[in-house]
Design a protein that fits this description.
Distance between the termini: 84 Å
Strand order of the largest sheet: 2-1-3-4-6-5-7-8
Bound molecules: NADP nicotinamide-adenine-dinucleotide phosphate
Number of strands: 27
Structural class: alpha/beta
Strand content: 25-35%
C-alpha cells in the first residue's frame, strides 16, 4: 500500500482553522460590547504597536463586539486616563481599570483572548474560594504584572490578575507590563524573571500562582507560597485533633490520615513552628542545606494532601472524656483523641528594656527582622546552634553582627562555630547583657564582663536573642497533664500522657529538639493513636 504523505503546512492550517472556528463560536455568545483604546507614539516601540494593531484587527474579524479607537499619546484622552507609555491598550476604561503596556502577541495572545471573553461575558471566572478572599480585601490594590511574550507561565498570572480587576473594578486595577516594551519599569522593579507581580508597589508573587494563592498574596500584600483552603463547620467530628502545626503535628497528620483516621491540625500561629523562622536548616536527611521556610512549605504542601489544616485558629480548651471536646476560637471539635504537638516558645532574657523595646530593635527572629538591620550594628545573644546559625545568617546578609555568650565555650556544633571564625564574626565570651537601652528603639546595651565584674555600655541598633525555648504547656497544665521536672510533657514510649486519649509529640516532650526527632515523634504518636483506637488501652481490663 502506498504511504500517505501529510503536508505539515496543511496540518497547521487545519489546526488554525479549528481554533479560529472555536473562538468565533465563543465570541458569538458574548453579550457585552468591549471598547478597546490603543495609545501610541511614533518611533516608540513601533514593532509592539504594529503587532497590537494586527492582533486587534484579527480579532475584530471574528466578532463585532469589539470597538476600537487609536489615539496618539498626547491626546486629551491619554491625559484623562493617565496613559504615558507607548503602546498602551485600555480595556473598557469607563468600567474597568485594566491596561496593557506592550503587545498581546506570542504567549500573551492567550491572555488577550481570555480578557476579551471575561469582558464580553462580564464574568471574572474567579473560583468561589478566590472570590471569598477577594471580598475580604477592603483597601484598593494597584496590581502590576510583568510578563514577556515568550514566557509560557505568564498568561496564567496575567489572567489571574485581570480576573480580580474584573470582579472588583471598584478595588483592583490591573496592569500587564511587557518587560521588553517597558524596560525602565522592568529595571526599576527588578523584574528580571517573569511573571513577577506587585501590588501597591510591593512584590506579591514570583512565578505563576493559582487564583487563590494570588489573592491570598494580594490580601496580605506579600508573596504567599501556600494556599490553605478554609474549612467550614461549627462542630466537627474527628478521630484525632492535633494541636500544633510544626513538624511533629504535620507529620502526625500525614501518618494518621494514611492510617485511615479522620484528623485535623489546628495551629494558632505560624505553620512550621520555629522552623518557619530558621534561616537555614542543615542536614535534614536528603537535604544538606535548605531554607527553613522552604522546608515548611514542602511539609505543609505534603500534609495538605492528607489532613485538614486549620491555620490561625487557637485551641482555647480541651475537655477530656468520650468524646474529648476541643474548643477553638472558631468552632468545637468532638474527637476520640488529641495529640499535643504545641512545641516550645522562645525564652526571654528577662532584663530591663527587653519587653519595652521588643519590635523596636529587640528581636527573636533573625530571618524576619535581620534584613532591616543591613549595614547596622547588632548583638546576637546566645551560644547554641540557633544563636550561631542566626549570627551567620545576619553576617551573610550584610548585618554588622557580634555574638555575645555568657560562658567561655559555645554549645553550638563544631561545624557552625568554625564558620564563625571563617567569616570573622566577633564573639564576646563571658559577657552577659544586663540591660537594653534606648528611648524609642534600641540604642545601646549594658554588658557585664563575668570574669572582671565590670559593666560597660555598648552602642547597638539591634539585639537578637536566641537563648533556647520553653515548652508550650499551658493547655496541658490546665487539664492536669503530668509534666517533667523541666516542665515538658511526661509521656511513655508510645507518646501517651497520663490522660487517656491524649498524646504528645515534638519539642513539648523535651529531648533533642531536632526537626528530624520531631517528625519521628509525630509519626510514632500517630501510629500509637491508630493502634490504641482499634484497641483502646483505657478500656482494657486485666483478665
Ligand atoms: P540551646 O541549645 O538550649 O542553647 C541556648 C543558648 O542560650 C546556650 O548557649 C545558653 O547558654 C544560652 N542561654 C540560655 N539562657 C541564657 C540567658 N538567660 N542569658 C544568656 N544566655 C543564655 O538553644 P538553641 O540554640 O535555641 O537550640 C535549641 C535546640 O534546637 C537544640 O537542640 C539545637 O541543637 C537545635 N537546633 C538545631 C539546629 C541545626 O541546624 N541542627 C539549628 C538551631 C537549633 P549556656 O551554653 O551557658 O547554657
Amino acid at each position: 500500500m502506498a504511504e500517505r504523505k501529510v503536508d505539515p503546512s496543511h496540518m497547521e492550517k487545519a489546526v488554525a482553522e479549528q481554533a479560529e472556528a472555536k473562538l468565533k463560536a465563543l465570541f458569538k455568545q458574548m453579550k457585552h460590547k468591549i471598547p478597546l483604546f490603543l495609545f501610541s507614539q511614533n518611533d516608540v516601540n513601533e514593532p509592539f504597536t504594529n503587532a497590537t494593531r494586527q492582533v486587534i484587527k484579527a480579532v475584530r474579524q471574528l466578532t463585532d463586539q469589539l470597538s476600537f479607537n487609536e489615539y496618539p499619546l498626547d491626546h486629551k484622552l491619554a491625559q484623562k486616563w493617565n496613559v504615558s507609555r507607548s503602546p498602551t491598550i485600555l480595556f473598557d476604561p469607563d468600567r474597568y481599570k485594566i491596561r496593557w503596556v506592550g503587545a498581546p502577541a506570542g504567549q500573551e495572545s492567550q491572555t488577550f483572548v481570555e480578557i476579551l471573553l471575561m469582558l464580553g461575558y462580564q464574568n471574572s471566572g474567579l473560583s468561589n474560594e478566590a472570590a471569598e478572599i477577594l471580598n475580604r480585601i477592603k483597601e484598593p490594590r494597584d496590581v502590576k504584572v510583568f510578563v514577556s511574550l515568550s514566557c509560557p507561565y505568564c498568561p496564567q498570572q496575567a489572567v489571574g490578575v485581570v480576573r480580580a480587576a474584573v470582579a472588583r473594578p471598584d478595588l483592583v486595577s490591573a496592569e500587564i507590563i511587557d518587560v521588553q516594551a517597558d524596560t525602565e519599569r522592568a529595571a526599576r522593579f527588578e523584574a528580571f524573571s517573569v511573571p513577577q507581580t506587585y501590588a501597591n508597589d510591593k512584590l506579591i508573587g514570583q512565578g505563576a500562582q493559582s487564583q487563590e494563592l494570588f489573592l491570598t498574596s494580594l490580601e496580605a500584600l506579600e508573596p504567599k507560597t501556600i494556599y490553605i483552603p478554609s474549612i467550614k463547620g461549627d462542630t466537627l467530628e474527628n478521630d484525632l485533633v492535633i494541636v500544633g502545626g510544626g513538624p511533629a503535628g504535620l507529620t502526625a497528620g500525614i501518618y494518621a490520615v494514611r492510617a485511615g483516621l479522620q484528623a485535623a491540625v489546628v495551629e494558632r500561629d505560624v505553620l512550621g513552628g520555629q522552623v518557619a523562622t530558621t534561616p537555614v536548616v542543615e542536614n535534614y536527611p536528603g537535604l544538606t542545606q535548605v531554607g527553613g521556610k522552604a522546608l515548611v512549605d514542602m511539609l505543609v504542601a505534603h500534609a495538605l494532601e492528607y489532613v485538614n489544616i486549620f491555620p490561625g485558629e487557637e485551641v482555647i480548651s480541651i475537655q477530656p472524656g468520650e468524646p474529648i471536646i476541643v474548643k477553638t476560637n472558631r468552632r468545637t471539635f468532638k474527637t476520640r483523641t488529641v495529640l499535643l504537638a504545641t512545641g516550645a516558645i522562645h525564652r526571654q532574657l528577662g532584663i530591663p528594656g527587653e519587653t519595652r523595646l521588643s519590635g523596636h530593635g529587640v528581636s527573636y527572629c533573625s530571618t524576619c527582622d535581620g534584613p532591616l538591620f543591613k549595614g547596622r550594628k547588632v548583638l546576637q545573644i546566645g551560644g547554641g546552634n540557633s544563636a550561631v546559625t542566626d549570627a551567620l545568617h545576619m553576617n551573610h546578609i550584610g548585618v554588622d553582627v557580634t555574638l555575645v555568650h555568657r560562658r567561655d565555650t559555645l554549645r553550638a556544633q563544631e561545624m557552625l562555630t568554625r564558620n564563625l571564625e571563617l567569616n570573622d564574626i566577633p564573639v564576646m565570651y563571658n559577657h552577659e547583657v544586663t540591660e537594653i537601652q534606648g528611648k524609642e528603639r534600641v540604642e545601646s546595651v549594658v554588658l557585664r564582663d563575668k570574669l572582671t565584674g565590670d559593666s560597660k555600655t555598648f552602642a547597638a541598633d539591634g539585639v537578637f536573642i536566641a537563648i533556647g525555648y520553653q515548652p508550650a504547656v499551658e493547655l496541658a497544665s490546665k487539664i492536669g497533664i503530668a509534666l517533667t521536672e523541666d516542665g515538658y510533657i511526661q509521656h511513655d514510649e508510645r507518646h501517651r500522657t497520663n490522660i487517656p486519649g491524649i498524646y504528645s509529640a515534638g519539642d513539648v516532650e523535651g529531648g533533642f529538639k531536632q526537626i528530624v526527632t520531631a517528625v519521628g515523634q509525630g509519626a510514632e504518636a500517630a501510629m500509637s493513636i491508630f493502634e490504641d483506637l482499634i484497641n483502646p488501652y483505657w478500656k482494657q481490663t486485666t483478665p
